[in-house]
Amino acid sequence: DDDPRARRLAASALGRVRTAAAEAALTPALALEAAPEVRAALIEALGKVGGERALSALDEARAEEPSGEAGDETLGRARLRISRTLGRSEPSRFLLDRAVKRATPVVLRCRGGLERLLASEIGPALAPRLPIGAADAGRVEATLTGAPAALLAARTMLSFGFPLPPQRLAGGADASPDAIAHALAAALTSDEAVELLRHFTEGPIRYRIDWAQGGKRRAVVWKTAHEVGARHPELVNDPSGSTWEASVHLGRGTDGLRVELVPRFEDPRFAYRLGDVPAASHPTLAAALIRVAGVREDDVVWDPFVGSGTELCERAIAGPYRTLYGTDLDPTAIAVATKNLAAAGARANLVEADSLVWSPPEPVTLVVTNPPMGRRILRGPDLGAVLERLVVHAASALAPGGRLVWLSPMPRRTAETAARAGLVALSSIEVDMGGFHADLQAFQRPTGR
User: Fold this and answer.
1) Can you point out the beta strands (E) in 63-167?
2) Among 224-238, 316-330, 339-353, which stretch is predicted with the lowest mean pLDDT?
3) Which of 17, 142, 168, 302 could form a disulfide with 325 if both were Cys (CB 3.0 to 4.6 A apart)?
4) What is the mean pLDDT of the chain?
5) CB 55 within 8 A of CB 23
């Protein structure tokens, strides 16, 4: 068409078709087009259509494009889109069982407040180092000498990653997009990063960028991906099919930029989690409750708010027990918990009942639970009264020496109630629940009572 606007709109429309025929139509058009605005539309459309033919056409166009022009960025984005599409045809995975070549720093993440529990789980062999300040809450540093699979022994761990050397960045989070992109690209293409990515990746190396402080920063992501691709074409930025996540932490003032390479893989620790309900605990939180409670071979365990059965599953995995009981008012929760417990190989007695009234038919040695609170199901002024009633009821169900281990959003109030009910406080840990805090409290009924 003689009208550039018509050609531009046609190119944009073909980009939405995303077929081989559209690619065949767009590719020769790019070589013949002179109007800048139409060329830009053709380049963007080819990036959406994808394919080897489109990539060759873009490479030819790039050779003719003056470096630093606006079209160069458009070409870079289009090439990145095609690289993502082509790379997804070949599977990629993180090699969990491959040992490091040498002692390697690693960062383990958990909920804030559980750092000591996490450090105790991985043991002294990995030389765990606890956070110094509040800014590093939920972070435990260690040294990996074998395969990353060993880290999965820590059931309170949310994730792990490999820290890269920090990059100088004046202004930190307030630095310009170009400065942040340049520093981030330098981290991702450092010798340490490239060696880790190549060593632990089978198949194409695909990564996504995640900002620890939140936000998208799309302009920075595009600039970073363009610069990384220019230095190491095998490193492909792909947010939807990545084997790695580059977790970016921007410091304040001149603290600079820190990156952790976090592998993405199917976590075998919680394979029992076949179903879920709105009030269910995250498995790492359930594991923390069990870690504090400890394991006794003769344990009779009761979870008053069983939800999807996560606490009981974690208790069954932790070691031998005599009996597991769980109650919930929701029949759907009972059905989901039944399925999850079977997947965990656990034997449990689940009852659809009111936990403030029902009691197990035998003395209980461990009451362990995460009651609904915060953004979960149970809200309102009655929450405190319900928690107090549960403490009193649980205390009456406990055998001498029995433990109550749970999470309380009103720790002072529930601790006072526990004392009045004759329970002795063993420990209390403030835990970040994501938007609010609760205390992981442990109480015990004295053996003489």
Assistant:
1) 93-94, 104-109, 139-144, 159-163
2) 224-238
3) 302
4) 90
5) no
